Amino acid sequence: MAAEPEIVQRSEQPYLAIRAFVTLQTLGQVLPSLHPEVAGWLGARGIVPAGAPFCRYDVIDMDRQLEIEVGFPVAAPVPGDGRVQEGVLPAGQYVTAWHTGHPSGLAEATGALLDWAAQQGLTWDVTTTADGDKWGCRLEISHDEPGQDMSEWVTELAFKLAG
After folding, report:
1. Rounded Cα gap, residues 67 and 58, in angstroms
2. How far apart are CA 57 and CA 70, in angstroms?
């Protein structure tokens, strides 16, 4: 992480996304196709995203399966259909950190963020279930441009705090 993480207040945010179940090994193969699929769905309906695309990690079991949603925020709730479903990112306090560089460095940046939060005595909005850790909201928000050199990608990590 280039800068110290920040605690920010985020408002509730409607979104449209595709849900997928992946492993750490298949995440990199699945993720690149989902953002364009959601973007195409939005474009076909004349819906302009209200912000940068994101990947939301809902349930994390590092040894087995990750439940993710890949999508875009929208200005107002919109009904989904087919693979594209609507949802609402919850309001609350989030710890936000920025990573600039190849996406392969996100695991290290996430680890650094988790360590920083532990040192601050912060706790996450997360519950351990039989399927893994269910997060209130854990986002990777992509601020890169199509065609941009991957070594310069900018990703915002935004994890919801408990309380």
Report:
1. 5
2. 9
Contacting residues for 79 by C-beta, under 8 A, at least 6 apart:
86
Question: Considering only CA atoms, which of 148, 33, 37 is closest in space to residue 102?
Answer: 148
The rounded distance, in Å, linking the Cα atoms of 145 and 153 is 8
Mean pLDDT by 10 residues, the chain (163 residues): 84 96 81 90 97 93 86 96 96 96 88 94 94 92 81 92 93
Q: Which CATH superfamily is domain 6-160 in?
A: Regulatory factor, effector binding domain (3.20.80.10)
**Amino acid (1-letter code) at residue 110:** T
CA distance to 19, 28, 140, 144, per residue, from 148 (Å): 26, 18, 17, 7
- Token pair in block for residue 60: 């994390």
**pTM for this prediction:** 0.90
Residue of 90, 81, 89 lying closest to 38 (CA atoms): 81
